[in-house]
Hints:
Elements: E1 6-14, E2 17-26, E3 29-39, H1 45-56, E4 65-69, E5 75-79, H2 89-100, E6 108-116, E7 123-126, E8 149-158, H3 159-171, E9 178-181, H4 182-190, E10 201-208, E11 211-218, E12 221-228, H5 235-249, E13 256-261, H6 266-274, E14 279-282, H7 285-288, E15 290-291, H8 302-311, H9 323-352, H10 355-407, H11 410-422, E16 427-436, E17 440-449, H12 452-464, E18 470-481, E19 484-496, H13 498-501
Parallel strand pairs: 1-4, 3-15, 4-9, 10-13, 13-14
Antiparallel strand pairs: 1-2, 2-3, 5-8, 6-7, 6-8, 10-11, 11-12, 16-17, 17-19, 18-19
Amino acid sequence: xxxxxxxxxxxxxxxxxxxxxxxxxxxxxxxxxxxxxxxxxxxxxxxxxxxxxxxxxxxxxxxxxxxxxxxxxxxxxxxxxxxxxxxxxxxxxxxxxxxxxxxxxxxxxxxxxxxxxxxxxxxxxxxxxxxxxxxxxxxxxxxxxxxxxxxxxxxxxxxxxxxxxxxxxxxxxxxxxxxxxxxxxxxxxxxxxxxxxxxxxxxxxxxxxxxxxxxxxxxxxxxxxxxxxxxxxxxxxxxxxxxxxxxxxxxxxxxxxxxxxxxxxxxxxxxxxxxxxxxxxxxxxxxxxxxxxxxxxxxxxxxxxxxxxxxxxxxxxxxxxxxxxxxxxxxxxxxxxxxxxxxxxxxxxxxxxxxxxxxxxxxxxxxxxxxxxxxxxxxxxxxxxxxxxxxxxxxxxxxxxxxxxxxxxxxxxxxxxxxxxxxxxxxxxxxxxxxxxxxxxxxxxxxxxxxxxxxxxxxxxxxxxxxxxxxxxxxxxxxxxxxxxxxxxxxxxxxxxxxxxxx
Length: 503
């Protein structure tokens, strides 16, 4: 009986060209059925859409497509999250992802995979839902024990950039089932011949004649380092310089570098590296995967082959930045199906019921709806009324305090004005007590703030704006007011009288 053949497409939008690889899987073999390349201007979206449209007509229909995002537009890194409680491993991973991102986690599309002795077949996602990241969209992946896991592999990028590239594919008529990173596709292509390295492996992926990237991969190690040169003939020296930097700040590097990507300058690069005792070996595509036809410089399709391997389920590192949106869409479809099913059952009940029963049912539904609406209105108004009353009470307390401060003389008025200038918008005072001697003004301030950062900023402004010589925090705690959490703080301040006389 012949084994079933499945085909997948790996799509790479590279500088100067769009490449596609079609990989067929027939257990236990993989075969590169075809590969295509369409030149285009990478800085022009319309040119990229045109190249994708021309490729679509040559690709097999109904095959899953995995799109590769360049490493310069995303983050691919390894991390070792702290796991004090394995059941809360997702929280530790979220913390590690936020440390890698230069922007808030809510603006990111991200995905991670555990890396361990079993090669990390467990994965998780990140997407902002109702509550904590990822928690309302999918069940948490089973957390490995700290002894068995060497960390996680994380991919992340801005969601707006991801949507932009998906829009290009939709305009070209391509349906993308998964989005990964091209450096990850390069690693998956290499792992077709080197599944589990015992020592670090160094990959040089040339993007064009002026840019490349190093991929350092090994046990508990994953690092992507971009390299650029203003001139085509200067890329070789820049690669040697960056290699020296990797050797000086990382683990011992191998004396063999795997070369992948699109470059006609492989002989020149090989000669440059041979001068420092490093062998540059192009990716042996013939050993990694069977080929249906010969290709000119097949190593330039390495990333596309790795992405296609993920499309057919043969990739060891499988990350998908669309996981969260796909699960959201699946939930919406299930909701629509449930709504339609409920409607059909309701119609059947109406058809089988008597007119008198239907009238009673409609009245009950109307009464129940009215009661629910009134309850919702009451629940929504009650916190607002309580908040307004509390706000009015706070204003009255402030008025009384201000009146008392005015009576204490011009010096206290000036100090109070300086404290008011130092007060941020998100911090307000509830209590202020003062004592004055011939040489010193001593006071205690109590108040509320939205966050601990607002309290810290207020303390700093007391020193710089209000010119307090002593700012001593007394207490800081969290309280609940209505449906909000507030920070309650108390601080002791001092300022000499002579500073007022000198002004």
